[in-house]
Amino acid sequence: MTEIWVTFKITEKIPAVGRYKCLVCGLIVEIPQKFIDMGKTFFSCPICHAGTDGGPRGSQEEIWEFLG
Description:
four-stranded antiparallel β-sheet; 21% strand; single chain; mainly beta
């Protein structure tokens, strides 16, 4: 069976309620329904700052992995 990773950049719209993991530091965040309803986009990691110009990965790189 092939494992498929679904990953996202900070500029992408959050597609679903659930848990997402930072690919750099492993932080897991829980995204509630209200974020989906408001059309929120992914944000930089509050721990390692991945997704920012000063972080380990820039804003155009995928940093969030959908866990379910």
